[in-house]
Amino acid sequence: MNLSIALTAGLVFALLLLRQYALVCRARRSTGSVLPATAPVRNGIYFFHARHCGPCQAIKPLVERLRVAHPNLVAVEVSDDPTLARAVGIAATPSFIAVRDGRVKEVRLGAVSEAWLRQHLTGH
Questions:
Q1: pLDDT per residue over 11-27, tens digit each?
Q2: For the segment 40-63, what is each residue's pLDDT rounded down to a tens digit?
Q3: 64: number of CA atoms within 13 Å, CB side?
Q4: Are the beta carbons of 78 and 93 closer than 8 angstroms?
Q5: What is the pairing mode between strands 44-49 and 73-77?
Q6: Cα-flanking dihedrals φ and ψ of residue 33, to 5°?
Q7: Shortest CA distance to 27 belongs to which of 113, 120, 108, 100?
Q8: 70: phi > 0 → left, psi -120 to 50 → alpha, else beta; which?
């Protein structure tokens, strides 16, 4: 009995790691892709989030505070704009997409630091 529980737990853990690896690979493939013409910002950061996402809600106050001074920080609720989320390959939330000249420069899955946000918002 204990061996089967351990094997099942190991299999579940391996599947979760495989899923995470697949998400990271998908995000990396988005690098260099062109934003849709309807995207509101050509240089800045897109914060893709979901209402039901706990980590999204945890980082949202930081994003909202920075948005006051940085109009090039765009928060996108994925269920409100699934077309944009699909266009840049969003498969998990929270996700941050740094863009320059209408192209995806960098993709980050999960929460990011305030320093990373500021660096990519100012282009330094």
A1: 777 776 666 666 566 66
A2: 888 999 999 999 999 999 999 999
A3: 7
A4: yes
A5: parallel
A6: -70, 155
A7: 108
A8: beta
Q: How many CB atoms lie within 10 A of CB 84?
A: 20
User: Which pTM does this prediction carry?
Assistant: 0.79
Q: Are 23 and 50 in contact (CB under 8 A)?
A: no
Q: What is the residue whose two structure tokens read 């409100």?
A: 80
| Residue 39 tokens, joined | 């995207």
CB half-sphere exposure, 30, CA atoms < 13 A: 28
Instruction: Return the amino acid letter for 2.
Output: N
Q: What domains can you pick out in the chain, each with its CATH number?
A: 2-122 (3.40.30.10)
For CA atoms 99, 100, 105, 110, the dihedral sign is: negative
Of 90, 119, 93, give the one whose Cα is nearest residue 29.
90
